[in-house]
Write a structure and sequence with these properties.
Layout (H helix, E strand, L loop, with lengths): L1 E6 L19 E9 L3 E2 L5 E13 L5 E8 L5 E3 L2 E12 L7 E15 L7 E14 L1 E6 L7 E6 L2 E11 L4 H4 L3
Antiparallel strand pairs: 1-2, 2-4, 3-4, 4-7, 5-6, 7-8, 8-9, 9-12, 10-11
């Protein structure tokens, strides 16, 4: 399963001209995502899923803004153009104790590679994410007087997600300096 997405954003708060296209606005042109379906590992409840993709961030002006809040190591530049690849393998299990509620523990790695088109060094970063999703489902079936739809089912599914990042790899880089 995959998709390709492309968007053009118009900055309505353009201070130079209200009718002109803002050449400084960062655009996402294009974004590509590919995902596998969930594959069970053996006969148990454990499954594996894989996602990968690419996002191209660009704008028609220069690849950086000079600003006092940017990275001092690179002359105050704030990066505005990049190509980002991501990799996301995930192992999870769906457990239904007593068929009353659902527990889904998962472990995934979210890895990213950034290319800045030879303007700055590339960046490799990632983190391990452990999650536990818990949900329960309440429903009730209501009779109606309509013969075409004799019954209506109303469902409420509250859920709770607990997340923890036990390991993170973030080397020193101007891109990370500007967002922290």
């Amino acid at each position: 399963v995959g998709y390709v997405e492309s968007k053009i954003f118009r900055n309505l708060l353009n201070t130079e001209s209200a009718s002109a296209f803002d050449l400084k606005t960062v655009q996402l042109l294009p974004r590509v995502e590919i995902a596998s379906r969930a594959y069970t590992l053996g006969d148990g409840p454990v499954a594996f899923q894989f996602r990968t993709g690419m996002s191209h961030f660009t704008r028609w002006e220069s690849s950086a803004d000079t600003d006092t809040v940017g990275s001092p190591a690179y002359g105050g530049s704030i990066v505005r153009k990049a190509l980002r690849f991501h990799l996301n393998p995930k192992v999870f299990a769906t457990l239904r104790p007593g068929d009353l509620f659902s527990l889904v523990p998962s472990l995934q790695y979210r890895g990213f590679v950034y290319s800045f088109f030879n303007d700055w060094p590339s960046l490799l970063r990632g983190y391990l994410l452990a999650q536990l999703d818990a949900s329960v489902q309440f429903y009730r079936v209501f009779p109606t007087e309509d013969p075409a739809t004799p019954l209506l089912k109303h469902t409420i599914s509250p859920f709770l997600t607990y997340s923890v990042i036990p390991h993170r790899y973030e080397p020193g880089h101007l891109f990370l300096d500007q967002v922290t």
